Amino acid sequence: MKRNPPPPVIDAARVVSYAFVDDIPYFGANPGEPLFTENEPREAVPRVAIAVGLAGHIGPRVFHCDEEWIALGACGAETVEQAKREVERNYPGVGERWIDTNVTVEEALAFYDSETAGLKCSFCGRRPFEVEGLIEGPQATICRGCVEEFYEDFQIDDDDVIGN
């Protein structure tokens, strides 16, 4: 099995460290407790990545991934170091395997934009991970925040409309 590094971004989060754990037995918080990914119990996962949300409001997350770096489950942590300690409890010995990616925020955003074909709100310029939903039209894309703002703008009294 080939061990390719992860992409710079997993689920809108910049990968900062990763490790291959396919040959390390998984030990859950309680002995014999399986790892749950996608609500399915698993013996273990072959890949683990620590990533920081691109939006900046979400702290580090540990992604439990398959061989293709598809996230099967995630859990949060306060810091990258705390995330590494948590993973070490579940995969003893992984501490010596962490590989730092050194991916910058700019590189991660460029990768994200290439994966989403540069999808952004045509009005405010925010990306999908920065908004609650986008609606794509033939010539423009608008986010929920802009729709709500424009709706409020149209709720003014007719006396306040310019030209009346």
Low-confidence stretches are none
Strand content: 25-35%
Give the overall silhouette.
elongated
Report the radius of gyration as a whole number of Å: 21 Å
Q: How many domains, in number, for the residues?
A: 2
The helix-strand sequence is: EEEEEEEHEHEEH
The overall strand count is 10
Structural class label = alpha+beta
- Enumerate how many helices there are, as a single number: 3
Q: Distance N terminus to C terminus?
A: 72 Å
Classify the helix fraction into a percent range: 10-25%
Largest sheet: 6 strands, antiparallel
The whole-number mean of residue pLDDT values reads: 87
3D structure, described in words:
The protein folds into 2 domains: 9-110, no CATH class; 116-153. It contains 3 helices and 10 strands; from the N terminus they run βββββββαβαββα. It has helices at 80-90, 105-115, 144-153; strands spanning 9-10, 13-20, 35-37, 40-42, 47-53, 60-65, 71-76, 99-100, 134-136, 141-143. The strands form 3 sheets. Strands 1, 2, 5, 6, 7 and 8 form a 6-stranded antiparallel β-sheet that branches. Strands 3-4 form a two-stranded antiparallel sheet. A hairpin with a 6-residue loop joins strand 5 and strand 6 (60-65).
